[in-house]
Design goal:
This protein is α+β, with helices and mostly antiparallel strands and 261 residues long. The protein has 9 helices and 9 strands. Helix 1 packs antiparallel against helix 2. InterPro entries: Homeodomain-like_sf, HTH_AraC, RmlC_Cupin_sf.
Length: 261
């Protein structure tokens, strides 16, 4: 099987032996916008990896795998020292996978299959293809609490989300944000639901969780992360984080420390 260089970042230590590869990326590594002719499954076995497309951003810690279909423009950013594992899915095998970028929880089978594909050479003809078929089947069947943060196209809504991106911890009301954006609270509330598919409160919670994942990956304490990201107390932060990510902030940090990276 010929090696493809389409998925190799320009910097950092990275190895690709199609259909799978791995790399160790430093904190803050950015891979600019690009696209692939095939699909791509990505897993950060340590650290966290953000994938951004025109449809928004997914931040994937070690308990998430992200999927980018063929032809979708996207970029990546690493948080912490990130151990990235990737598996290329040929275009003709993508029929059972989502047609839009998405993510799923890392099941034990997904984890072990990813490691088998990326940690050891192929010793028997066809072994990679058989393992990859298992990976595709398991990903297609696995649901997740989504870590997707959609982004708007409406100029008024973008003015609001840009301000929140700049300072996720602010507690400015939608009415006040609307006055600065030239739109009423009612109009913005409607736009959040129709364009982004969630309420203003839910979108801001997702934004804060994204930033919390980054702070926790960088080693900031749970209490400091809660304060910086806008929660009034650690308990409310822990509840929100657990509901979205599927594990507590403390468990997330413990998992990070237990993985070599």
């Amino acid at each position: 099987m010929p090696e493809s260089r389409q998925d190799v970042p320009p910097r950092g230590s990275f190895r690709l032996a199609a259909p799978a590869g791995w790399g160790r990326l430093p904190h803050g590594f950015v891979l600019d916008r690009h696209q692939h002719r095939d699909g791509l499954l990505l897993w950060a076995a340590a650290g966290a990896l953000a994938t951004t497309t025109e449809r928004g951003t997914w931040v994937a810690p070690a308990n998430r795998i992200t999927w980018t279909p063929p032809g979708f423009e996207h970029s990546h950013r690493s948080f912490g020292h990130t151990d990235v594992r990737l598996v290329v899915i040929p275009r003709d095998l993508c029929g059972d996978l989502p047609r839009r970028p998405s993510a799923c929880a890392v099941t034990p089978l997904l984890r072990e299959t990813f490691l088998a594909l990326t940690d050891r050479p192929e010793t028997r003809p066809g072994a990679y293809e058989r393992l990859r078929a298992v990976l595709v089947d398991e990903f297609a069947e696995t649901s997740e609490p989504s870590l997707h943060l959609p982004e708007p196209t409406d100029d008024r809504l973008r003015a609001v989300t840009d301000r929140l991106h700049a300072d996720p911890g602010q507690n400015t009301t939608l009415a006040v944000l609307g006055r600065a954006a030239g739109a009423s609270e009612r109009t913005l509330s409607r736009l959040f639901n129709t364009e982004l598919g969630m309420s203003f409160h839910r979108w801001r919670t997702m934004l804060r969780v994204h930033h919390a994942l980054i702070h926790l990956t960088e080693g900031r304490s749970v209490t400091a992360t809660a304060t910086t990201c806008g929660w009034s107390n650690p308990s409310s932060f822990i509840d929100a984080f657990t509901e979205v990510v599927g594990q507590t902030p403390g468990r997330h940090q413990a998992d990070l420390r237990s993985r070599p990276g």
